[in-house]
């Protein structure tokens, strides 16, 4: 399943809360309007845009959003270019994901494929392919250009083309999302054309019954209600105010439906989040040391496991240091992830000095020629000064081996803590040099708006978001996808 689809499905607690709230706000004082009937689709093979009564064009669009025509036509072929495959294949298959091999597709390899990676033994140091040469600083694309991007065109189009062997070439989440976003074929969740032009008979007889939409005039009272709604989704007062104020610009006094408000808010949220959507940067210097911090239970261990698996699957050599020596369960959990991914996990006896383990792990990573060293840490905020000293010591000792380390300090935050996440950013920024955020557990929380507040307030890069416990439930952060998922925007 595409990550965006999962994100949308799993952010339902946040989006349905917003949805219900918006319905109530618009219905309260809104007026039901009849909109132009939606033509029934009779001939989906004909490309085109459905007709709309000119005087009610926007209303018709809204009605379609609210009640999409069920038999939407397939994408016109020129909307889904797949230059490397014959036209027939694309049409016959009807599945863009398979016929247009892409980096995004590769993120969707089933976990089973990843589990098939060999045991956690030190793998034979295979020579790195040319395309994995160290990247220049700020070059964000660690993804080797796999053969699947440019598949060999078949001399003779096969009637049943074999699916591409994508499992082995999954990209890590550090893949730059800008590239993905610029490629329309990757947006399989957002077909560009909602419906086809009806056939002739359809145009004559097949018009659906007139539909209605409720719209309410945007005024101060409604703005206040919208603000409260966003605050209830954990967006925080300041951010909610900003979103609503910007959204209101140019729309005061206009009649808006729920769908239109959602789209306006989604655009505003995406605009706020755009500057912080930055994949984890990769540096030419290896091993790149990534220190992972966060309170207990925020998802550090799981995030490290997912990162290690994704990087390993992308051909990177990874070493993990199980630096939370206070919790045996955390060490065991990391070992399970390490075994799955074929990544060595360095451990130390319970209660021993995590800095000493980090020092050894640094040595091991250097000796192994590892690309990445991921260091887990304890998250005992109960004793802040102890934790601060512990983190400072880890940094001191690894700098004995590389004075530029750690190259990233990732703060892992649990979305279910809502506004508390803001305090955690403050505290961890005080005690460590936080360079970026990962937000976990966006699935199953009605507090997803907190990520908008974080972006608005701190401006720290958001590298990735977690929406479940499986390997591929962590992906780079895409502001537009997130905003749409949070607001429950339906793009037809
Ligand atoms: N639903 C959901 N659960 C998650 C996600 N990420 C982590 N978890 C779960 O959250 C729990 C805590 O995750 P850990 O990775 O152990 O958190 P931690 O920060 O390492 O915790 P400590 O080891 O106590 O410091 C585990 O049960 C994970 O499976 C996520 O994105 N979604």
If you had to describe this structure to a student in words, what would you say it looks like?
The protein has 492 residues and is α/β, with parallel strands linked by helices. The chain has a domain at 288-487: Rossmann fold. Helices cover 40% and strands 10% of the residues. The chain has helices at 3-10, 12-27, 57-66, 87-93, 96-99, 103-106, 111-115, 177-181, 200-205, 220-232, 237-248, 258-273, 300-313, 328-341, 354-368, 384-401, 420-431, 450-458, 479-487; strands spanning 31-35, 211-217, 255-256, 288-293, 318-321, 345-346, 372-376, 408-414, 436-440, 462-466, 474-476. Strand 10 and strand 11 (474-476) form a beta hairpin. The chain is elongated, with a radius of gyration of 25 Å. Bound molecules: guanosine-5'-triphosphate. Guanosine-5'-triphosphate (GTP) binds next to helix 13 and helix 14. Guanosine-5'-triphosphate is lined by residues 294, 296-302, 324, 327, 330, 333, 379, 440-441, 443-444, 466-469, 473. One of its GO terms (molecular function) is signal recognition particle binding. Residues 29-199 are annotated as: Disordered.
